[in-house]
Amino acid sequence: MPESSPRTGRATAARVLESEESAMSPEQSGLHDLYVDLLKDTYSAEKQLSAALPKLAKAAEDDGLADAFRSHLEETKGHLDRLEGLFASLGLAARGKLCEGMKGLIKEGGEAIEDHEKGPVRDAALIAAAQKCEHYELAAYGTMRAFAARLGREEDVGILTATLEEESACDTKLTEIAMRGVNPAAMSERGEG
Questions:
Q1: Which candidate, 171, 178, 97, places its Cα nearest to that of 137?
Q2: C-alpha closest to that of 112 among 99, 125, 123, 96
Q3: Fewer CB within a 10 Å sphere, N or C end of the chain?
Q4: What are the b/e assignments for 48-83, b being 16+ CB within 10 Å?
């Protein structure tokens, strides 16, 4: 049996995808296209977030918050790997389209750094910015999971559920950090920063 080249592998994957798409109803085909579009958008969002998280960790004064940002960076790398696997299962190259939503949320995080001196008030602002990002991701992954289920892509559903659980856990951890110490400390810093 001859060895297959990467080019042959891509061609085979493309034929399989074309075969799957031709078996879809027009409604499924439209939903499939929307699913792929959202995968691209979310891939871009995760790439942008992976570039921003080290800056957030460096800007945080609270050690627990800085650790949470570093830990989520490692999870985000895993999320990118999972998304790349989903692209591969669809016979597509992992490529994002600029996610304007995440771009704006990250800009807000940068403004939190610029607008506040290092300390509890800045940490509270960083948590708020990070949780906005988490909620954006939760919406994206939840929607993709619903699309995958409707399209009968059960393996994708499992992969997306795992990521949703990690995003939710990160959001919960940020809330705990805020409630445990950051927000009370920020209250005592009235008018500063």
A1: 171
A2: 125
A3: N
A4: bbbebbeebbebbbbeebbebbeebbebbeebbebb
Q: Write the pLDDT tens digit of every residue in 146-161.
A: 999 999 999 999 999 9
Provide the CA 134 distance to its chain's centre, in angstroms: 7
Q: 4 lies in a domain? A: no
Q: Which of 130, 39, 135, 139 lies closest to 79, judged by CA?
A: 39
Range of the domain at 97: 26-187
Instruction: Provide the CATH number for the domain around residue 173.
Output: 1.20.1260.10
Number of domains in the chain: 1
Low-confidence ranges of the chain (pLDDT < 70): 1-28, 190-193
Mean pLDDT of the chain: 88
Among 154, 76, 54, smallest CA distance to 84 is for: 76
The C-alpha torsion from 77 through 78 and 81 to 87, rounded to 10°, is -110
Q: Is residue 7 domain-resident? A: no
Distance CA 42, CA 146 (A): 15
Global pTM? 0.82
